[in-house]
Prior knowledge:
Layout: E1 7-9, H1 20-29, E2 32-34, H2 37-49, E3 56-59, H3 66-76, E4 84-88, H4 97-102, E5 103-104, E6 116-117, H5 119-122, E7 127-131, H6 138-150, E8 152-154, E9 161-163, E10 167-172, H7 176-182, H8 187-193, E11 196-199, H9 210-225, E12 231-232, H10 234-242, H11 248-262, E13 267-268, H12 275-279, H13 283-286, H14 290-293, H15 299-317, H16 322-329, H17 333-346
Parallel strand pairs: 3-10, 3-11, 4-7, 7-10, 12-13
Antiparallel strand pairs: 1-2, 5-6, 8-9
Amino acid sequence: xxxxxxxxxxxxxxxxxxxxxxxxxxxxxxxxxxxxxxxxxxxxxxxxxxxxxxxxxxxxxxxxxxxxxxxxxxxxxxxxxxxxxxxxxxxxxxxxxxxxxxxxxxxxxxxxxxxxxxxxxxxxxxxxxxxxxxxxxxxxxxxxxxxxxxxxxxxxxxxxxxxxxxxxxxxxxxxxxxxxxxxxxxxxxxxxxxxxxxxxxxxxxxxxxxxxxxxxxxxxxxxxxxxxxxxxxxxxxxxxxxxxxxxxxxxxxxxxxxxxxxxxxxxxxxxxxxxxxxxxxxxxxxxxxxxxxxxxxxxxxxxxxxxxxxxxxxxxxxxxxxxxxxxxxxxxxxxxxxxxxxxxxxxxx
Length: 349
C-alpha cells in the first residue's frame, strides 16, 4: 500500500562525538511526516525561526511531537553542527536538577566522587531542549534564569563561572501563563524563554497524516527489530483512522510497533491492533450534529453550549495555552478568561 504524497522530513540530530551507528539511529528517530495544512504552516514558521538565535517555546499535547519540532529547529539552524541536548525536566529528581543542568565539582555533595559536566555545558555551541519545562522547581528556575540571561553557569560546588553559548528551546503541555499567575513559574524566566511560540497540533487535527505515519512506523520496526510485516490491511487502517488518539503520535507509534510484532510475515489486520482502538466507535459515527444534540435546549442555550465547545477545543488545540487559544479564536485574552470563568461558574464541562 502506497504512502501517497506525504512529505517525510529527515532531521539530523547527530552530536559531537557520536558514532556512525548512533548518528544513523538519531536520524531515523527524526523522521517525520508533514502533509497537513497545519503542519506545513508550522514548519514554514519553524524555517523562519531557525535563522535567528531567539529562544523558542514549543507547545502541544503530550505525544504530539514537540521534540521532533525541536530537533528540526536545531537541524535547520546555524548550530546544527553542535550538540542537541535534551533535559527531561519532569524525569530528573528535584534534588539532582541543578547538578544535572549545571554539573558539579568533586565533593560538592555526598556521592560526587568526580567532576561532572552538566547538560548546559554539554549543549554549548548547540541547543538545549528543556522538555516539560513547567516541572522545574523554583530554585532551578532561578538558576536557569541567570544562565539564559548571562550565558554563564557555575557548577555546583564551584565559585567560578564558565561561559556557555546555548540556544534554549523549551516545551510543555502546561499553561505556563496560568502557572505564572498562580506563582508556580517565574514570570521573568517565562518572558526570557517566550521569544517565539510554535504550536504542534494534535494528531486528531491532522488525520490526513495517519496513513503515512503508519507506514513510517512499520518500516522502522522492520529496520530496528527485523519484523516481517508486509504492510497493513484496509480494515485495520480504517480503524486506526477512526480513533481519536489522545496520546497522539507517540500512542500511534506504540500501537503500530505492537501490531507489527504480532502479525508475523502478514499484513497488519484488525486482530493485531490494541483492543482500545476497536472498542471505540469511529469518530465519524460519534459526531452527531449540534442541532440533533441540542434539540431540547433553547436557541440561547444552544449558542452558549456551542461557544463553550469552541473555547474548549481552542484550549486543547493549543496545548492548554490560553494566550494562543485567544489568538486562534481571534478574541482578546481577557474575553477568553471571562468566558472560561463564566463556564466554570455555571458548572458546565
